[in-house]
Design goal:
The complex is a heterodimer of chains A (115) and B (114).
Chain A (H helix, E strand, L loop, with lengths): L3 E4 L2 E4 L5 E7 L5 E7 L5 E8 L2 E5 L6 E7 L2 E6 L8 E8 L10 E2 L3 E5 L1
Parallel strand pairs in A: 2-11
Antiparallel strand pairs in A: 1-3, 3-8, 4-5, 4-9, 5-6, 7-8, 9-10, 9-11
Chain B lengths: L2 E3 L4 E5 L4 E3 L2 E3 L4 E8 L5 E7 L5 E3 L5 E5 L4 E6 L8 E9 L7 E2 L3 E6 L1
Classes of the chains: A mainly beta (115), B mainly beta (114).
């Protein structure tokens, strides 16, 4: 069973469109994340939810809106896509109770290409 | 603020030779330190972590890392490299007072030649 799964794996779309990426984890973790990996492979945290509560919201355009319907799911919706949004988006999860060390478990990534 | 530096974009080593991938960090408190590996077109995989205790930690696939508090370093090592170790390696830090944020270095590409 895949621990952290993302769909779709590939997205190709035109500028100005809206797209969503979905993520699910079956590890029983309480915290989920979205990271963006650019063309130079640099990883930057975007958002994090702990038990459905938004706890990290980095400097990200408000065209990006995360949503966590429950602690096993975290979705990312992007409005009015721009060329610079082209990247690989990784979902991750961790267990973050007191005493947990919080290593991250990553999905396989969703490669977004904006034309 | 937390930060991680990986000074080498690429490390080249011959198969069978020892390898080192360097990492230095900056946090205001005590860090949790991690190494992750990324194979082409895959997600990152956890390799090992330092939390407390022995400065030499062992992880998956024969990798180990040495924590050096005075030099704020956490270098990844392996005694004998394999061609299959060729991948992108990320060092990461999490400030134990900083909640849930894990910050990654820029990554170092390891190339092991047969």
């Amino acid at each position: 069973d895949t621990a952290v799964s993302q769909t779709p794996k590939y997205l190709v779309t035109q500028m100005g469109n809206d797209k969503s990426i979905k993520c699910e984890q079956n590890l029983g973790h309480d915290t989920m994340y979205w990271y963006k990996q650019d063309s130079k492979k640099f990883l930057k945290i975007m958002f994090s939810y702990n038990n459905k509560e938004l706890i990290i919201n980095e400097t990200v355009p408000n065209r990006f809106s995360p949503k966590s319907p429950d602690k096993a799911h975290l979705n990312l919706h992007i409005n009015s896509l721009e060329l610079g949004d082209s990247a690989v988006y990784f979902c991750a999860s961790s267990q973050s109770r007191a005493g947990d060390t919080g290593e991250l478990f990553f999905g396989e990534g969703s490669r977004l290409t904006v034309l | 603020a937390q930060s991680v530096a990986q000074p080498e974009d690429q490390v080249n080593v011959a198969e069978g030779n020892p390898l080192t991938v360097k990492c230095t960090y900056s946090v205001s408190g005590n860090p949790y330190l991690f190494w992750y590996v990324q194979y082409p077109n895959r997600g990152l995989q956890f390799l090992l972590k330092y939390i407390t205790g022995d400065n030499l930690v062992k992880g998956s696939y024969g990798f180990e890392a040495e924590f050096n508090k005075s030099q704020t370093s956490f270098h990844l090592k392996k005694p004998s490299a394999l061609v299959s170790d060729s991948a992108l390696y990320f060092c990461a830090v999490r400030d134990i007072r900083g909640g849930f944020k894990t910050i990654f270095g820029a990554g170092t590409r390891l190339f092991v030649k047969a």
